[in-house]
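Two entries, shown back to back:
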Amino acid sequence: MSNAISLTLASNVIGYVGLDGDGLGGIEHSFDEHVRGTPGKVTLLRDARRGVYLVGGDGANRPRDGHHVVLTIDSVVQFIAERALQQAMTRYRATGGSVLVMDPNDGSILAMASAPTFDPNRFRAFSPTAWRNRNVQDLYEPGSTFKIVTAAAGLEERLVTPSQIIDCGHGSITIANITINEHDGKQYDLLSFEDVIVNSSNVGAARVGLALGQQRFYDWIRRFGFGSRVGLPLPGEQSGLLRRADKWTQVSPASISIGQEIAVTPLQITRAVAAVATGGTLIEPRIVKRVVDEEGHIVYEPPRAAPRRVMSEKTAAVLNEILKNVVTRGTGEKAAIAEHVVAGKTGTAQKAVRGGYSSDKYVGSFVGYVPADQPRLVILVVIDEPRGEYYGGTVAAPVFREVGEATVRYLGVPPSVPSR
C-alpha cells in the first residue's frame, strides 16, 4: 500500500493526540490512561567536554512505556474497505461515506472506514469534519434497509407470511392526508410479501407497519437495539433518534416501516442485520480485544455481553431466503459475488431538511452478509449525497461486492455457490 494510505489507515478509529500527548480522538482518547505511559526520573551527568550521558534511570523510578491496545481491526480488510469507499466517493462526488465490516459470529469489527479521512500526524491541517468516525457519530435515515426490521416484526408477529399477497395500491397509499409513493414511480398492485421486500415496495412495507401499530412496532425497534448506544469504546457514539410510541403520529408506523422518521448510526444497522445472519441472536459488536503491557501480559479485557435472542430461528431463516432473493432478482443485484451466495438489502433515503425532505440530496446504502448460509461477514456501505446516481443498489451495492469479494478471498472462505 502507498505511504499516503498507510498514514491514514483507520485514522478515524485510532484518533489523534495533542502536543502534550493527550489523546483527543478515537481509541487514543478512550484509552488515554492506558497508552500514555508513566513518567519517571533519570540521572544525567555532564562531563568536562560538556557531553551529557545517562547514568541512572532503572528501578522503580524509571519511565515506563504505555500499554498496547489490541484491536479487532484487520489492517488488510481495513485497507480494502477504505480503498473501495474512496473510489466510490470519487466516482459519485459524494460528500461522505462509511463502510463497516463485522464478523457476525463474535461481533469483531474487522474494518471501520470513514470518509473523508485525515492524517493523524497533521490533524489540524484537516477539517474537523474529517476527524469524525461516521460509523458511530453520524445519524441518517436508513431508508429501505430498515425494511429488514419491519419484515422481522411482521413475520414474528404472524401478521404476514412470505407468500401472503399484499395490496400495493397501484403505487401509493394515503394515511391522514399523507401519501407514500413507490420509489422511481413504480406502480405495483398485488405482490407477495417476499416480493414486497425483493422489489423494496414502500406501500407493501407501510401496510405491515400499520398492521403492527405504534406500541408493538416501537417495542420491536427497541428490541433490535435502536434508540440506544451500542457501547463501543469510541468517543461521540450517538444513540440515534427514536421517538417514544406515544409521540408517534397516525402516519408514523408507515413512515418508520420504510426507514423514515427514525435516525440511526451505521453501527446500529450492522448489528441489527447481523441478528438475521446469526439465526436470530443479537451479538454485541466489539473493537477492542484486550490491553497488554510491554511484556505482553493482559491488563484489561473488555467484558463481553451474552448474545440475546431477538427473533426465532424460523423467522431468521425465512428472512435469509428473502434477502438472498433481493440480490439474485431484486434491487440488490449489483451486490452479487461470483462464488458466493449473498443476502442483503438496498436503501435509498431522501435527506431530511427543514420542512420536509430534500429533492436532490440522498443517502444510498446497502447492507448484507456473505456467505448467506454460513455468514463470515456482515458489510454495510453508506454513501452520503452522491451526485448523478443515488440509488443504494447503484452506488453502494457495488462497493459491498468489491469489499466482500476481496475479503472472503483474503480470509480463504471456500466458495458457497451450490455446485451444479
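entry 2 starts here
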Amino acid sequence: MSHIKWLGIIKDDLGQYQMGDLPDGAKKVNVPEDMDELMIKAIPFQIIATVIIIVSVFVKVSLAKEFPFAPMWVVIGFVLGFLALIIHELLHAIVFPKKATVYVGIYPKSFGAVALSSYPLKRWRFVLMSLLPMVLGVVPILLFWILPPEYKVANGLMLGMAMMGLTSPAVDIYNVCKALGETPRGCTLQFHGDSLYYYDGI
C-alpha cells in the first residue's frame, strides 16, 4: 500500500501535489484540466447512475406492491455515503504501490475529498485505482436489490448509500473512458500538475 499523507482541508492549488518527474515524450490525455469543466464532462455518467437507481426503486416497489424502505433512512444512508467519500479516496490510494506518496484531503470547492499523486501507474493499475471506489455504490445497490421488502431500515440505508456511491465516481469513470480510448495497451499513465499523461515504460 502507498504512503498516505493527510492534508486536511485543501485551500490551495491541487496541481502542486502532482508534480512528479515526467519523462520526455509523454503525451497528454485529452481530459479537462479545470475541475469544474471535468465535473461537467462527467455528468452523463451521473445520469446513468441516477437511471440505475430510479429503475431499481421502480422495480422493487412494483414487486413489493409497497414502499420497501423508510424515507428517513434513505436520507441517513445518503449522509453516510457522503461521509464515506474519505473511504472513496482511500480506496484510490491503496492501489498505488508502496513507493508512492498519495495526498488525501478535503477539497471544499468540489464539496468532497481528493486523492492526489503523481506516481506512474501501468494502464491496468490506473483503471483499477480509478474504479475501485465504485464498490461503495455497487455493494449497496446489490443489497438493495436482494434484501426482503420488509427490511425497510436496511433498504433505506442501502438506497441512500447507493445514491452517493454510484454517482460520486463519475469523474473517475470519465477519466478511465478517456484513458482507454486514447492510450495504447501496456502504457504508463501519470498525473502531472492538473493534467494526465501517458508514455511507454515501467
